[in-house]
Amino acid sequence: MKNNQFLFLLVLTYFALGFVNIHFAILGLICMILPFILLFRNRKKTWCQGYCPRASLLSTTGKLTSKLSLKTPAFFIQGKIKWIMLIYFGISLTFITMTTIRVGLGFSPALEYLRFLIVIPLPFEMPQLITFERLPAWLTHLSYRFYSMMMTTTFIGVILSLVYKPRTWCTICPISTISGEYIKYTR
Ligand code: SF4
Fold first, then answer.
1. pLDDT of residue 115
2. What is the pLDDT of residues 121-158, one digit of tens each?
3. Rounded to 10 degrees, what is the CA torsion of 142, 38, 76, 83?
4. With a 6 A CB cut-off, is 173 part of the ligand 1 pocket?
5. 5: phi then psi, degrees, rounded to nearest 5
6. Closest ligand 1 atom to the C-alpha of 167?
7. Transmembrane segments in this chain: where (predicted)?
């Protein structure tokens, strides 16, 4: 099965919606839950092979430099980078969960700005075209953190797609790594 070439529009819509209202960032959870539902049902990477909007985006951006692109280095495919990325993913999710709980319990204020790679704050405020009244602070915090994680991984993926083969990110994508291990151990 081949990824639909226009699925990348969903990624662009997702990031655009963050400027309409940051709480739409929670929709990104769909892209984290659906791959595993399909994996547990089919015991193969159904999401990666046919439905991933990010893969469609990377295939599209990769075309921009296809004549100049370098071969994906072997250490991406066989080395430790995918495990480093998985650890980053785990730390990110732990950080998001713990800080959201702290905000929910009133121990700390919501961080209402974006961060790159968990710790680097971006020096601008996101415009919000519409506001939702009376949403809990923890939900706002969770939304900014989730958007930040999606932005970071998408940015890295796009840079890799421009330098190397379009879907180089897929060789180190945490969802692919977890799926691969699941398939290996349930054979
Ligand atoms: S490896 Fe990651 S980015 Fe690539 S298709 Fe699968 S989920 Fe999407």
1. 95
2. 999 899 999 999 889 999 999 999 999 999 999 999 99
3. 60
4. yes
5. -70, -15
6. 4
7. 6-39, 83-101, 144-164
